[in-house]
Design a protein that fits this description.
Order of helices and strands: HEHEEHEE
Strand order of the largest sheet: 1-4-5-3-2
CATH architecture: 2-Layer Sandwich
Helix content: 25-40%
Number of helices: 3
Number of domains: 1
Structural class: alpha/beta
Strand content: 15-25%
Shape: globular
CATH class: Alpha Beta
Distance between the termini: 52 Å
Length: 132
């Protein structure tokens, strides 16, 4: 499968999913859409980064970057719609993980899944004593 970003955006505009099935196809798709996801996150106040192998699911970490960032469901919706044109009606957020992060998982294509880890907004509890 050879995909271009134009192919992905065309499928998105028609509310269709990309069909990526093998680890190589998934990795190509995930690396291709990373700039789109980073831009979508930035537009709603988050810094987005990828981690992991990119060969099974797309592991993303999101950190609030500006004071007026959106809520977590709006972030997930912005990311999902930026590459798939389809959004979940509801996002299920798991229990709190180390460092206060929470996560959700959503589809962005056939066999293509985002595992989004969201860092907490620490602006409410950081004080001078936090920095030593």
């Amino acid at each position: 499968m050879e995909l271009s970003l134009d192919d992905v955006m065309d499928l998105r505009s028609r509310e269709r999913f990309v069909r990526a099935e093998t680890p190589d196809e998934l990795e190509q798709y995930y690396r291709l859409i990373m700039p789109v996801l980073v831009k979508a996150g930035r537009e709603v106040g988050y810094c987005i980064a990828g981690f992991g192998s990119f060969r099974r699911d797309l592991d993303l970490i999101a950190a609030p970057w500006v004071a007026d960032h959106c809520d977590r469901d709006t972030l997930a919706r912005a990311l999902q719609s930026s590459v798939s044109g389809i959004v979940n009606e509801k996002y299920i957020w798991g229990h709190e993980k180390p460092c206060g992060r929470t996560g959700t998982v959503f589809a962005i294509g056939f066999h293509a899944v985002v595992d989004l880890q969201l860092m907490p907004d620490t602006s409410e509890f950081i004080t001078e004593s936090y920095w030593g």
